[in-house]
């Protein structure tokens, strides 16, 4: 028996079994005794048929109360590890619930254990996430995160509590595969009022975020080998969904008006699907012009193609004139509208939606049912209350003002600390801006910024074509308080300076 400061090991009489007990460990002594005996059974230290000490003997050996040892043994009996025989005692069961063959000898190499990944699996594994994050809470200039510090947590928690208090047994059962009707009604009402399009609740499918929506649509609409347009540069999550569906992806360049429809038609005139972010192109941030929107719809109609409209960051405009969403301009039923609450509320909510033509409703539900049934019912119900009672619209109005202030703070900080090194492009919509570097390599700045405790993403991270993008950074401002923007930009300026010095020392490095 050995003694330690915070733990002790006790030997059970007649078995040579050591059980470690730590009075301060989470779970208590009962759980530790249970785990020690169970581990000894699974490791073969206590073979099947072995008699174990009684609860009285175990309590005396381990110097614990008899109640503690009795409850541990009763749990092992209930789970099938031990069998109690009247008048004889308690024995290790002959058939164990976790009776798995144990490996002996040298384990085989990893290559010998597993077959190779599929081609699509390798392509997906090689993909890059939308952003590389440092550990910890949001910091300058993390992209893809709204002002979570200003979310009305108290209001949300009150709605959660009210829903839980009134929950009936039927509301704890499985829900509708299409999503809660009350939430679909609220979503349909919102897009009619805010996005200038018409839809019925029956056309709305509630999903676990925009990424899940894109995955479902690509699975439903594409066969392996089908051609698809993808914005260049563009959203890596959409590329992953297209890769998973086996599509042949054609990057189509984006300019100041959005995706170049004429270029796409030349490269892949028979494409089956187009993915676009027309309200706030990711990552360049430009809204698609009305002229390009009409051209895209006309091409899709003549080519018989589908258009996935990811209405990314559509709610936040900074002096830009509102443009109708593609879905609202579509007279041919070609546009599939994808929306999300990750940026308007908070990313952890993981709720979004698809608006699809009526003839796609049943097939889309069937594809969804093949992999999941529905998002969490409680979250859907609370969000429906939040929207129906006006909290959502009030929050959006407040956030539009806040994000305008944070963008102005970003612009002011860039002029103060990075003049001559960084030039911000106009940000008309959304929660991030693109900034061109002057005589600095974006990859080097990305690495140096992480060392200085700020997050930036090189624009090249979102390119899929062969052309080299300019040395530019994507800077998020949604999650950065206006009073913290100045300090963040000062650290970014130091990172740019460090990257420039490194470039001069290693002119051929790349």
Description:
By secondary structure, this protein is α+β, with helices and mostly antiparallel strands. It has three domains: 85 residues, Orthogonal Bundle (Arc Repressor Mutant, subunit A), CATH 1.10.10.10; 239 residues, Aspartate Aminotransferase, domain 2 (3-Layer(aba) Sandwich), CATH 3.40.640.10; 112 residues, Aspartate Aminotransferase, domain 1, CATH 3.90.1150. The protein is built from 17 helices and 17 strands. Helix 6 crosses helix 14, helix 7 packs across helix 14 and helix 16 crosses helix 17. It is globular and about 90 Å long. The termini are far apart.
Note the overall shape: globular
Distance between the termini: 60 Å
CATH topology of the largest domain: Aspartate Aminotransferase, domain 2
Task: Tally the helices.
Answer: 17
Under the CATH scheme, which architecture of the largest domain would be assigned? 3-Layer(aba) Sandwich
Strand proportion, as a percent range, falls in 5-15%
Helix residue percentage: 40-55%
Query: If strands are numbered along the chain, what order do they take across the biggest sheet?
Result: 6-13-12-11-10-7-8-9
- The computed structural class is alpha+beta
Q: Spell out the CATH superfamily of the largest domain.
A: Type I PLP-dependent aspartate aminotransferase-like (Major domain)
Largest beta-sheet characterization: 8 strands, mixed
